[in-house]
Amino acid sequence: GIHLTPTIDGNVFIGPSSEYIDERDDYSATQKIMDLLIKDGGRIFPHINRGDFIRNFAGIRPKLASKEEGGYHDFVIERREEAPNTINLVGIESPGLTSSTPIAKYVVSLMKEKEELTVNESFNPIRKPIVTFADKSIEEKEALIKENPDYGEVICRCQTITKAEILQAINNPLGVETLTGIKYRCRAMMGRCQGGYCETRIAGLLEEVKNKDRKDVLYSRENSNMFVGKVRD
Description:
alpha+beta, 233 residues, 6 helices, two-stranded antiparallel sheet, globular, Arc Repressor Mutant, subunit A
């Protein structure tokens, strides 16, 4: 059902909706569904205004079966011959968090069937989070800037995200190669302007740190190149 969900960062989500699609990579947000969200969301909160919408997005829910099959694909954990080095985990919703440890052990057992695994005794499972700037006191902010001057340079004005936080996102152990990857890790470009002010500066940092050619900088998925050439030399 459609509901309003406040986030810990002060945003409000309206949704979700669902409709069957024919293409598995169709991420389009259609006007029909947008109108539905506004109509049904307005029954909960009558003050919804289209002008307040910052961003609309859609995702793929592979657990929903086709109209002909009906039902759900719930907790599907499998390997398929067409992709033997990949483990599918489909429909892992509630209680997915509670089940994460036994799921991980089962996935490891499936991987052991295809290759020999050795334990890395030096692996450190604890990963430090990005140290945020906006939520700190004046004294804490001054200390951060003194320790790392990059905290004194605000790149994303809407969310008060500093250069230091963006660099931590770029150098994340899991790796990030796109602008949306940086967005999801540190909230840069999630404000009212949606990157209108900071997007090119973040692209420049990604280009510099990852030693990328400007034409290879991606916004999100494959072929979402940010730049195709120069306006002037």
